[in-house]
Amino acid sequence: MAAIESPCILVCSMDMKTGYCFGCGRTRDEISGWIEMTPQQRSKVMDVLPGRLETVERRPRRETRRARMARERETLS
User: What pLDDT score was predicted for residue 51?
Assistant: First the structure.
């Protein structure tokens, strides 16, 4: 069974104003339906997440997995 790519960074808390998760930017419906989505549907959601995360009220206080991986990629380049 292949692993399913996920934007989850284990900061599971919803911004009540936007309806997006503070950690990944997905909605509750997207989070709950992630496994059933096709790879194309997941890809479409992943494409809009950076813009969504800019609209949430607060940011995670710790370094996220996504940020850490990007930083590590930069240091390997």
Answer: 95
DSSP H helix total and E strand total for the chain: 3, 0
Which structure tokens are listed for 63? Answer: 């370094």
Q: CA-CA distance, 35 to 42, in Å (whole number)? A: 9
Q: What is the pLDDT of residues 24-33, one digit of tens each?
A: 999 999 999 9
Structural contact between residues 28 and 67, judged by C-beta atoms closer than 8 angstroms: no
Helix (H, G, I), strand (E, B) or coil at 21: strand
> In this structure, how many other beta carbons lie within 10 angstroms of the beta carbon of residue 65?
15
